[in-house]
Write a structure and sequence with these properties.
Elements (H helix, E strand, L loop, with lengths): L1 H7 L8 E2 L4 H31 L8 H27 L1 E2 L6
Parallel strand pairs: 1-2
Helix pairs in contact: 1-3, 2-3
Length: about 100
């Protein structure tokens, strides 16, 4: 449902109202959130998932693989929610939202 909401470009829900003077700090905070999402995905894919798969020829840890998949799903959901939040922002000037 969340992906569908995003793909349709819908903008309903709670929105941030950002004054012009507050826009740069607000945007920096949102970029920091995006960086944390990318970092989490990187750790999950590059480190945790590789450990869960195990070395070639050795059975992986199924529980750990499921955990990583679940966490990646959470990162994806957070990313969609982040993108929707960006779409819903209201600014004093039309060109910032």
């Amino acid at each position: 449902d969340l992906r569908g909401t995003y793909e349709l470009g819908l903008r309903f829900g709670v929105a941030d109202h950002v004054r012009d003077s507050d826009f740069i700090p607000w945007a920096q905070a949102r970029l920091a959130e995006a960086r944390r999402l990318f970092e989490a995905a990187h750790v999950l894919i590059s480190d945790t998932l590789q450990q869960a798969f195990g070395p070639p020829g050795v059975s992986g840890d199924a529980e750990q693989i499921v955990f990583v998949a679940s966490q990646l799903g959470s990162v994806y959901r957070e990313g969609l929610e982040w993108a929707l939040r960006i779409r819903r922002v209201h600014c004093e000037k039309e060109d910032c939202g």
